[in-house]
């Protein structure tokens, strides 16, 4: 596979994950995109904020292409003295539009980095230990895709907990066809199987 084709494949999978993650916010109230639905506080808008930072850090700062060059970075940025998990939730002052807008700007910034550099181009991850700080663009792209897909999976589950919506993307939900009654029967069957296995 030639480098341009490899880049195109990598960017396609990254964009699919980006789109899926943002789609999970559609049609929800401000409360629902922000509310924590796991014991560790996982929430939809926080996931978007986090992956925006991931892209801007790994595909910006790592390759000497900082996004926050002419303006100060936000308080949650890794170069600031941020509180733990500050990039995983939205404050009341941070609007949905700000965070999703930053994420879309991160896409453009990341894509320009990928277009400008060879896959074997090297960079330095500033927040990694010195002995393993040097990375290639190829390595970083795979890492960012993996991270984004992982968080898109988190968003799938969080959205289902909010209103029952599930699926891969608007065009293909990637789920078996079935109405609410079918899914209720399916879930009940899984519950029975789990109980039988634990009693056996």
Describe this structure in words.
This is DinB family protein. The radius of gyration is 19 Å and the shape is globular. It is 55% helix and 3% strand. It contains six helices and two strands, in the order ααααββαα. The N and C termini lie far apart (51 Å). The chain has helices spanning 3-23, 30-34, 44-58, 96-116, 137-163, 180-199; strands at 122-124, 134-136. The longest helix has 27 residues, at 137-163. It has 200 residues and is mostly helical. The chain has a two-stranded antiparallel sheet.
For this entry, give a set of tags.
200 residues, mainly alpha, 6 helices, 2 strands
List the SSEs and their pairings.
Layout: H1 3-23, H2 30-34, H3 44-58, H4 96-116, E1 122-124, E2 134-136, H5 137-163, H6 180-199
Antiparallel strand pairs: 1-2
Outline, from the CA principal axes?
globular
Q: pLDDT under 50 segments (min length 5)? A: none
Arithmetic mean pLDDT: 92
Number of helices: 6
Structural class: mainly alpha
Number of strand segments: 2
Approximate strand percentage: under 5%
Distance separating the two termini? 51 Å
Order of helices and strands: HHHHEEHH
Major sheet: 2 strands, antiparallel
**Radius of gyration, in angstroms, nearest whole number:** 19 Å
What portion of residues is helical? 40-55%
The order of strands across the largest sheet is 1-2
